[in-house]
Batch of 3 targets.
Target 1
Amino acid sequence: MREIRYLQALREAIQLEMQQDENVFVIGEDVRHSLRGATKNLIKEFGEKRVIDTPISEAAFTGMATGAAMAGLRPIVEYQISALIYVAFDQLINQAQKLPYMMGGQGSVPVTYMVIGSGARSGLAGQHSDHPYPFLVHAGMKTVIPSTPYDVKGLMASAIRDNDPVMFFAPAKVLAMKGPVPEEPYTIPFGIGEIKRQGVHVTVAATGHLVHDALKVAETLDKEGISIEVYDPRTLLPFDKKTLLQSVRKTGRLIVFDDSNRTCGFAAEVASLVAEEGFHDLKAPIKRVTRADVPVPFHLGMENFVIPKGEDLVRAIYQIMQSKSEDAVI
């Protein structure tokens, strides 16, 4: 099978869906020039009516996409920076997410919101480094964060075809990553996670680019006789708790490795889920390796302290392996 980059697989999924359904179109800032690379050359194939550049007003074009979706189209909205979805929250949460319920199911809002290059990149500071997916999960919006080229193509196709609003995060640190991807169209259903590596001692539930950091740690610690199982939920909502609970039942230990804030973050939700439904399978307390509860600093040394990384995961694994079963109190 051929190998292509994550960003290329994402672009291919969009292109294939636009070829198959004339109601699919792209809207956002600089999408014709493809500043982020996800819409490269689409203007040549589909023209200006289906690849639409907008003014710098996230609230305006997010609202426009909602209206277009209610009229029967399937917009893909691209945001250049993840934190910019904050200025569109009224349109995202109060409108797109709630309107189908307020209309009693008489209409749908099939919009895909695409954040290219989400998460912290060195030196970009607070307003360009957020990973705000916990806000969307809290609001009940379907939320996707693929970690591999294969996953991103299949999940993007599913997002575009879905009749509900879907928030789609493509982490900056995996955009250039290569992996095997079929040429033909395919979908990956929402709510089905994947065990990226089998293990017997500790389950690491990792999100986005941290899946690859977890795999590297697992490979290193395997030489020390510590066997790590890496679980990738792929979609944060709906969440595949069945696969995670089966993994925890096997290993007896859980670490949640997540690139969002600790307090009320996604890791807190995963930890509470396992505490509620898998407590008796635990041999040690659940641990969370997350961001600190502060904005990402501009200073690189301070940034390094705030952002979760492989060495933090290693430290947590050593600690959880030393814990005794009788100490497993959540």
Target 2
Amino acid sequence: MIDLKLLQKDFDTVRTKLMRKGVDAALLETLKTKNEELKTAKANFEALQAAQNAMSKEFGVYKREGKDISELKARVDANKVKVTEAIEIQREAQEALETLAMAIPNMPDDSVPDGADENDNIEIKKVLTPPTFNFTPKEHWELAEKNGWIDFERGVKLATSRFSVSFGMGARLERALINFMLDFNRERGFEEVSVPALVNRQALEGTGQLPKFEDDLYKIDGQELFLIPTAEVPVTNLFQDEILKADELPKKMTAYTSCFRKEAGAAGRDTRGMIRQHQFHKVELVTIANPETSEQIFDEMVECASGILTALELPHRLVNLCTGDLGFGAAHTTDIEVWLPGQNTYREISSISNTRDFQARRAKIRFKNGKKNEFVHTLNGSSLAVGRTLVAIMENFQNEDGSIDIPKVLHPYLGM
């Protein structure tokens, strides 16, 4: 959640930053109105409270001087009623502003480039050179079906479209990739955790999926439980409503989970293959950090995710997301895009984001900084999306006859 104190102190700066991220002008005017209503409510309460304190002092004077206090008592009693009413008005104004603020995205860092969409993102660098073929490379769904690794029709039979079933080497490779990624991350200081695949509404509000993105979530009927869209949700919320010690930070964690998304806003996109599934496997990186070190840790997380692709010999590039492509909770993001020869393009396989204190405010995650309690910074990123990594292996390691080589780093995980 955006800093409401900053909002009250400097609304124009907040508005300017949010407009860079494409927040609707009407919504910003409503935010300004709710903010002004709260400021007025606070001022009214403080004035009534000051009057109450002044009249309380008069009681002592009246008693010392032997004056009749009946008229003063009547004024005090009447003011108490106004104070009670003012407290309720302030509470309602605070609640209204906080409810609206929950639907407001994070402010982008000043370093984030302006832009309308993914076409305005800025490439940072390329890592490894895409392979060349003396034949026309096939797309992953052709290779998956030819080798019997993935069965899309049986996925539909078991569930619906955008589900798939892995067989044989396809299933073994998924498991090998998960273990390799977790080992790779653990060796770089990320503690492995295992978390539930179901979370409550409060957890999703804490990381920013609710209330805005409820249509993308799978909800359990009759319960306030949702299937997780990413391990970012349960791992970040492990420390919801806690005050951590400064020497406990950073808390660097990695987790494997299945993830579930309706992809309500992606109709017609990537309908073939494994790029955009309703259920997919992912290894996630999450860090709870001291604000002073969060940027250093951000760089470490980008390097970690990129390092996995390098170890797998998969060409990729790093991209700085522009304001129009930046996620709801992110202050800034580096995407990692892997080269897919069958599509002759780079496709996103990871997004590493620093949310600053945006999620921490929503989830109430703080740390003891001297005598003060301050909000932590939270960071998250895919390391990596398992299905998309499998896609990249199929397309980059394919042979003319349709067979697929296996990256050497995975051989020990497959008994090769």
Target 3
Amino acid sequence: MSERKHTEDEYVGLARATVEIYVRTRKVPKVAGGCVICDDDSFHGWHLSPELLNGRAGTFVSLKEDGTLRGCIGTISATRDTLAEEIIHNAISASTQDPRFPEVESRELDFLVYSVDVLSPAEKISSPDQLDVKKYGVIVTKGYRRGLLLPNLETVNTVEEQLDIACRKGGIERSENPELERFEVIRHF
């Protein structure tokens, strides 16, 4: 496993270390006693900030290789007891369960670039006019179908593009007039 850089954001460092440990050993790091621990001695006792230990929120972990998306999985709202556990779970999922990509292999680990988005609670909106692709992510819902798109993505320049992609992800036709929600993120990279 590569050394965690002192200048690396704590959220990104946790995602990176989790993926590296899991891909190489299939062991899942755990949060215990204010630390991240794993049977792998190089990852034992990493002390976490109070924010990661006490916070709860939905998170998305994104992996890129050569500037191209390699995996992205997340949760809209908290599903775990701590923000650290949410990141650990989503980092493993992004590297092994994104249906658009094969599982990350150990030979790729040194080339991956990570980001972690921490989502604010979503708020219902009545119109696309209340969206801004740089500031807000969007959730579209119709019945049990749901699609989400994060804000401030390089390839998305208009609200129409944002809605089209979110609807496609949720298997929803725009003509079905899905319910709209927006959220903000704090992006760690």
